[in-house]
Amino acid sequence: MANKMALKTETMVLNMGPQHPSTHGVLRLELEIEGELILSVKPHIGYLHRCFEKHAEAMTYPQVVPYTDRLDYLAAMGNNFGYAVAVERLLGIQVPERVEYIRVIMAELQRIASHLVAIATNGADIGALTPFLYLFRDREYILSLFEMTCGARMLYNYMWIGGLSHDIHPDFVRKTKEFLKHFRPTVVELNNLLTFNKIFIERTANVGILPIDTAINFGASGPVLRGSGLAFDVRKEDPYSIYDRFDYEIPTGKGLVGTVGDCWDRYYVRVLEMEQSVRIIEQAIDNIPEGDVQSAIPKRIKPPKGTVYTRVENPRGELGYFIISDGNLNPFRVKVRAPSFVNLELMGELCKGHLVADVIAILGSLDIVLGEIDR
Amino acid sequence: MYQFLYNLIGNEIVAGLIVAVVPLTIILLFALFGIWLERKVSAHMQDRLGPMRTGWHGWLQTVADLMKMLQKEDIIANDADKTLYNIAPILVFTGSFAVYAVIPFSSKLLGSEVEIGLFYVLAISSLVVAGILMAGWSANNKYSLLGAMRAAAQIVSYEIPTALIVLSMIMLTGTLSLDKISQMQTSSFWNWNIFGGAVFGLSKFLLIPFMFVGALILFISTLAEVNRVPFDIPEAESELVAGYFTEYCGMKWGMFMLAEYGNMFAVSAIISILFFGGYQSPLGYFGNTIGAEWLVPFEQGFWFIVKGLFFVFVQMWLRWTLPRLRVDQLMTVCWKYLIPYAFINLIIIGIISIL
Amino acid sequence: MKQYLRNTWDGIFTVLVGMKITFKHLFTPAVTIQYPDVKVTLPERVRNRLYVNMDDCIGCDQCSRACPVSCIEIETVKSVPGEDLGTTSNGKKKALWVTKFNIDIAKCCYCQLCVFPCPTECIYMTDVYEFAEFERSNLLYKFATLTDEEAAEKKVNFEKMQAEKEALKAAAAAKAKPEAPAAPQPENKTE
Asked: Which residue of A has its CA nearest to C20?
C-alpha cells in the first residue's frame, strides 16, 4: 500500500562545465549527485584538441619542438627534453657533457616551477587564496632565469635535438644560487601557512584515497602514484641523460595525517619533491663542464628507419614519446603518452562516496593540464 | 536620539525619518569604505598593491564599481520565479539593516531605545535566511539551489552558539538593552566585560578566561552568520561560481553585497559592545578632562567606529589566511565543538555570577 | 576525548600561526610594478616582435622554410646580369630582388627558429611587445622595400631576359640542325 504512494526521487545531474573557475583548463565534469553525495563522475575532454600528432607528421624534426612545448605548457622544458632524448636515440648521437648538465638543471628548475603552480592552484581551489600569490611570486624568479637564458618565459623551444638553442648566460649560475638561497625559507613559510593548517588537513586528509594496486592497475604515474606509497620514478628506474650521477631521494606518501594515498599525501609529495629538485640543482650547478652546446646538432636531421619509445619524468608523471621514422625529413608518426590523460581516469574511481566539495580537492590533487590531455 | 529630534522639530514623522536615514547612510558609507579596505588589505597581505588608479590609492574604486553596477541591464531568466526573485535582495538587505536600529553609536546616537535590544537583534537576523532561500530557489539554477540550501543550514545552526553566548552575557549583566550594557563598562578598559566587567572581587578574576573563550566562540559563530571564510561555502567562488547569487546582476547583486558588508559591521559592533566596552574609551574622555562636555559623544562615536573597524579588519585578515571548510565539517564544528563549549561556558559563568 | 581536545587545540594554534604569517606580509613592500608608468627592463635575449633588415636580406628563403607555422612568405625575382643590387653588411653580393616579404605576426609563435638559419642575421627578434592592433589585417607586416611598380618592372625585365636566352638557345639549336624544320622547335622551347 505504501509502495503506490512512495516518493519518486531522482538523482540530479550537475554539470561542472567547460567554463568553471577551478577545473584546470577546459574540462567538463558530469556529476550525478544525490543531495551532496556523489554517485558517479564522468569527465568529458576534447575541448582543447589541436591536432598535435597530425601536425607533427607535416613538420620536420626540429620544427616539432615548439609544438611539444605547447603540450603541457606548465612544464615545457620537460616536454622538450623527452622529445630531444627520443630523437637522439633514434639518430644514435651523443650530446656533449655541458648540454647534459644544463638540461638537467633546466628540467629540475621547471619541476620546481610546475609544482609551485600545482600547489598554488590546489590551495586556491580549497579557498586559501594567499599562498597562490606567494608561490607565483617565487615562480617569477624561475621564469626570469629562463628568460635570461632563452628569451621566453613559458614556451621555450630550448632543448633542441642534439643540443640547446643558446648557451647559458654568464650571470646564470650566480642568479640560480641566489634563487636557491631564497627558496628554502619560502617552503618553510608554505608549510606553516598551508600544509599543516588544520582546516587544509580537514579538507584533504582521508579524501580521495587511492590504494596502491588501483593506482598500478590504472597506470597512474608521478606524484599520484608516489602518494600511494610506491617509490617509482622514471629517473631512477630507467635513467636517461645523466640522472644516475646525482644523489637524491624519491619522496612517497606515508599517511602522516590521515591515510596513505589521500589528497594530502599527493600534495605533500609535491612539496618534498621540490626540495629534492633543489638538491639536484645544487649538485649540478657548480660542476658544469666547458664545451659548445651546439656542436652536436646535425645539419639535416634524417633518422634511419625505425621506432623508439622514450619516457621521461615530467612533473605530472611519466611522459612518453613514441616516434616512427621512415627515413624522411618528417616523422611518420609521433605519439605522446600524456601522464595527465591517464591520471584523469582515476577521477571516477576516487570520487565515489564523497561530497561535491571534495571533487574539487581531488581534481586539484591529481594536477592535470588540459593541454596534454587533449593535445 | 528620537526624543532629541522630536523636541527639536516637533514633527513625529520627520524625526522618525531622520533617525532611520542616519544608519542607512552609515551602512552605505561603510560599505564604500569596507570594500576598498578589503581590497587594499588583501592586496598588501599578498605583496601586491590593489586598486591604485582611481583616486588616491584607488579609494574611488568602489564608486566606479557602483556606477558600473547601476548601469547594468537587469536580466531575469525566463524560468525564474519573478516575485520571489525580486523580493529576495530586499529581504536580505532589510534583515541586515534593521539591526542598526538598536546599536548605540554613542551615548546620544541610538536609533530606538527599546529594552529588548539583543533579543530583537537575534530575531531579525533570522529573517535573512528566508531571503537567501528565496534567492536560491527562484533563480532556477542548480548551483544557486545548492548554495542556498547550504547557507540556510549554516545560518540556522550557528544561531545557537551565538544565542548561548549572548545569553551568558545577559545573565552576567542582567539587561537585554545594548545601550545599558555599554554604559555599564565605563571609565577604563579594565572595566570591560572581557576582563570580567565592572564588578569588584574574586569573581571578576575568575571570569576572565571564560570571557575570552566566550568572545572567541562568539567571534567564530558570527563569522559563520555573515558567510565569511572559513565559512563561506554558500558563496564559494571556486566551487559554485557564486552560490545563491549567481543569477543576479546589476543593482540586485549590489544589494546583496551591501547587506554582507552591513552585516559584517553589525556583528563587529555587537561583539565590541558585549565584550569590549561598546563606545566607551579605554582611557577616559578628553572632553571631560578639558571641561568640554559636548565633545564626549563625538569621542564615543570615534571609539565605537575604531573598535568596529578593528573587528572588521580581523574578519578580513582571517579571510585571506584560511581555506574554506566543507559543509559537513562546518556542521561538525558548530554542533560538536562550539555548542558544547558554549554550554559549559554558560554554566560556569552562571555559577560564578551567583557567587 | 583526547583526540577531541587535540583537534580543538590544533585548530586554534595553526590558525594563529597562519595569521602571524599574513600579518607579517602586510608590512613587506609590494612586488607589483605599475605597468604603463613603470616598465620592466627586458633581458637581452628576449623574444618579441620580429624585424627584418631588408638591406641585408639575400632572399635565400631559409627563414621561411624553418618556420613551423608558415607565417613568412617570400617571393624573389632573379636579377638581370649587369644590375647592381648592392652588398650585405658582411660582404656578400646580393643576386635576387625580394619582391614580397610578408610576415603574418598574428601567426608567429615566437619560437625563434627563423633567426638561426639566416646567413646574414638580418631577421631577428626585437624587444617590442606592445604592438596590438584593432584590425587583424594590420598584423600582416610587409617588409619588402620595392614598390609594386618596381616589382612588376623587375619581373618584366627578368622575363624579357629569359625570353632572350631562350631565343638564343633556340637559334643555336636551329643552326646546328639545318635540315630539321626551324618553326616548331622555338615554339616548343618557349612553351
From this structure: A193
C-alpha to C-alpha distance for A300 and A316, rounded to whole angstroms:
33
Q: Which residue of B has its CA nearest to C17?
A: B321
Identify the pLDDT of residue A1: 44
Distance from the Cα of A192 to chain C's closest Cα (Å) equals 6
Cα radius of gyration rounded to whole Å, chain A? 22
CA distance A196 to A194: 6
User: Could you give the CA distance from residue B244 to residue B93 in angstroms, rounded to a whole number?
Assistant: 15
C18 interfaces chain A, CB cutoff of 8 Å? yes
Beta-bridge partner residues of A28: A44
- For the cut 60, the answer to whether the pLDDT of residue C185 exceeds it is no
Q: Tell me, what DSSP letter sits at residue C93?
A: B
pLDDT band, very low/low/confident/very high, at C188 (cuts 50, 70, 90): very low
B350 confidence band (pLDDT: 50, 70, 90): confident
In chain C, which residues have their Cβ closer than 8 Å to the Cβ of A62?
66, 113
Handedness of CA B336, A126, A128, B313 (dihedral sign): negative
Residue type present at position A37: L
On whether any CB of chain A is under 8 Å from the CB of B73, the answer is no
Is 90 exceeded by the pLDDT of residue B29? no
Q: Which residues of C touch B317 (CB under 8 A)?
A: 19, 22-23
Collect all residues of chain A within an 8 Å Cβ-Cβ radius of residue B142: 12, 14
Least confident of A347-351, B184-188, B238-242, B293-297: B238-242
Task: Provide the CB-side half-sphere exposure for C57 (13 A, CA).
Answer: 25
**Does C40 reach chain A within 8 Å, measured CB to CB?**
no
Shortest CA gap A157–chain C (Å): 6
A147–C43 C-beta distance less than 8 A: yes
Are B212 and B341 spatial neighbours (Cβ–Cβ below 8 Å)?
no
DSSP state of A340: H
pLDDT in tens, B265-315: 889 999 988 888 888 887 777 777 777 777 788 888 888 889 899 999 999
Quote ipTM for the complex. Answer: 0.84
